[in-house]
Fold this sequence. Notes:
single chain, 223 residues, six-stranded parallel beta sheet, 10 helices, alpha/beta, two-stranded antiparallel ribbon, 8 strands
Amino acid sequence: MSKYKYAFFDMDGTLSNSREGIFKCTEYAFKKLGVPIDNSYESLRRVIGPPLVWAYHTYFGLSEEDARRATDLYRERYSREGLFEMELYDGVKEALQTLSDTGIKMAVVSAKPQEYIERIIPHFGLDKFFEFTSCASKKDTDTSKSHLIQRAIDYFDIKDLTDAVMVGDTKYDLDSAAEIGIDGIGVSYGFGDREEIEKCANVFIAEKIIDAAKFIIGKTSDN
């Protein structure tokens, strides 16, 4: 019997390396606004995970009005070309296939708007793995994903929260899981800060996506 019956996955930084599209769209938005931006990796990686309006306001000092304008400009380019400027991390399909073969039910839980996820998942051939997607609305500025995780729990009608686990690369994923009362798996290869995810409650750290899959089904690297 597997350790968990349900696995929820973040998209950016967990299943996909979406740096190119997200960074280019952020640079495009700030250029259109006429606002200078620190386009270093350490600076731009902070927009991956939380809602864009919040990230632009909190990390880049934009007013709430300008943060919303920047988000609109970001989505202007993202929906046109940035959407598919990403690639799956090595081993993602193999790991998901392992979980599927074991009978694990899976969902994507992402701060991306639903309309983007609905295009991304089939484009990369992931639709056969995921029964459900729980995504933010375009107006959502909540940094917590707890409401999105809860939506997945409700969909699967999960009564025992120990049956579910959230897999993500940032504290936003893992703190939200703890808030709801489910375990978390933090992947170390994504865009999050390893020290931050190590401090999150009830978290296993996975170096590779296959390590996360093995943990979900109750195997260790030695099995």
